[in-house]
Amino acid sequence: MTSAAAPGNRPAPPPESGSTGGPEPGPESVSPPVARRPAPGSDGAPWRGWAAVCAVSLGIFCLITSELLPVGLLTPVGAALGVSDGTAGLMVTAPGLVAGFCAPLVTVGAGRLDRRVVLCVLTALMVAANLAAALAPNFAVVLAARLLVGVSVGGFWAIAGGLAVRLVPERHVGRATALVFGGVPTASVLGVPAGTLLGELGGWRTAFAAVAGLGLVTLTALLVLLPPLPATRHITFPELPALLRENRAVRAGVIVTFLVVTGQFAAYTFVRPILQEVSGVDARYISTLLLGYGVAGVVGNFLAGPRDAYRTLLVVSSVLTVVLASIALLPGPAVGTVLLLAWGLAYGGVSVSVQGWMIKAAPEAPEAASSLMVAMFNFAIATGALCGGLAVDGFSEPAAPLGGAVLMLAAATTVWVTAIRRTPDRSDGQGRIGHRA
C-alpha cells in the first residue's frame, strides 16, 4: 500500500481495480521527471523481473506479519512477562507509531541510496529485532525490539511499492504493482493467524523466532533476485503538506484511512480476549478461527480489487460498523464465529481500496499521496491498539469493538459526504471529487 509512483515521466498506473472515475489530479508533479530505466524482464528473460517482484512482495508480507504478530499472542506474552492485555497491546502500538514516522522519513532520507541496499538493510534489522524479542527476558526488551520492527516496516513499505515499474516491462506494471501490494492484506489476514498457531504449538517465543527465520529467507531472496536499483528521484518534505493542502480528495482519503484502520485495530488487537470473554469460544479453537478470518480476508481482498474504491469503502465501513457492534454485544460461540468470518471478509477489502483511492486522488503525484497514506495507516494501527488497550483496561473487553464500531460509522459517513455524494452520476463514469481546498 505504499507508493506506486513511477520514477519515470508518467504516473504509475493504478492497481487493476476496474474502478470507475476518480478525483481530479492533485498538484503538479512533485519532483522532476526522469527517464525510466529498462526493466530486468525486458531483455528476453521476463522471469527475472517477476522473480524480483515476488521477492519484494515476500518482503512486505514478512514485514507486515512481523508488525501484527503480537495481535494473536497478547494473552500468552502478557501472562509470561507479567503485564496486562492492555499493556501487552503496546507491542502493536509501538511499531505502528514508529513506522508511521519512518514512512516519510525513509522516503526522503534514503532518496539517493540504492533501493536494493535499503530494502536489504531494513529486512536484516527486522530479523535482528524478532530474534531479540524471542530471547527477551522481560517486557521492556520485547518493547525495544518492537520499536526496531517499526523502523523496518515504515521504511520498507514506503519504498517497495514504487519498484514494480522498474522491475517488469511497462505493459505488466499494473499486475506487478498489485502483486507487491498483495503482501499487505495477505500478511494482515494470514500472518497473524499463522503466528498465533505457532505460538500455541511451540510458545510465543517460537512464533517470533519463526518470523525471524522467514526474514532470513526474504533477505536471501532480495539479495539474489533484486537487481541494483540506484535512486532516480526523491520526495522533499515540503511537498507532503502541500499535497494535503491543495488536494481535497487526498485529505479525505487520509481521514478515511485513519478512521477505518483505527477502528479495526482498536478491536482486532484484542480479538483473542473478546472471543474468549464475550463469545465464549474455547481457547483451543482461537487459532483455527483466526485462520478462518484470514481466509475470509483473502476472499474479501479479491472481491474488492476490481470494484470502485469509494463504494467499496462505504460498504466495508458500514458492514464493519454492524459486525463490531454485534460481536461486542451478542454472546455465543456460533454467533462469534459467524461474526468473525464476516469481519475478515469485510476488512480484507480495505488495503486495496485505500490504495486505489489515493492513486485516483493524485494521479500526478501518487508517490507523495501514497506515502501520506502509509504514514497514516501505521499511525492508525498504533492509535487503534492504544485506544483499544485503554478501553479494555478501563472498562471491559466489549468496549474495544464498540469503540471500533463508532469509528467505522464515522468512516462510512466521511466516505459518503466526501466521495459518494460529491461524485456525479455521469454516463462516462468519470465523476470526480474536486481537489482544491
Question: How would you describe this protein?
Answer:
With 437 residues, the protein is an all-alpha fold. Helices cover 69% and strands 0% of the residues. Helix 1 packs parallel to helix 7 and helix 14 runs antiparallel to helix 15. The longest helix has 29 residues. The N terminus is likely disordered.
Topology:
Blueprint: H1 46-68, H2 74-81, H3 85-88, H4 90-109, H5 115-135, H6 139-160, H7 173-181, H8 183-202, H9 204-225, H10 239-246, H11 248-268, H12 271-277, H13 286-304, H14 309-329, H15 333-347, H16 350-361, H17 366-394, H18 399-420
Attribute tags:
18 helices; 437 residues; disordered N terminus; single chain; globular
At a glance:
The chain is an all-alpha fold and 437 residues long. It contains 18 helices and no strands. The chain is globular.
Number of strands: 0
Low-confidence stretches: 1-37, 425-432
Compute the number of helices: 18
Instruction: Indicate the percent of residues in helices.
Output: 55-70%
Summarize model confidence as the mean pLDDT: 80
Gap from first CA to last CA: 25 Å
Q: What Rg is obtained from the alpha carbons, in whole angstroms?
A: 20 Å
Helical/strand content category:
mainly alpha
What global shape is seen? globular
| Major sheet details | none
The helix/strand series, from N terminus to C terminus, equals HHHHHHHHHHHHHHHHHH
> Strand content of the residues, in percent?
under 5%
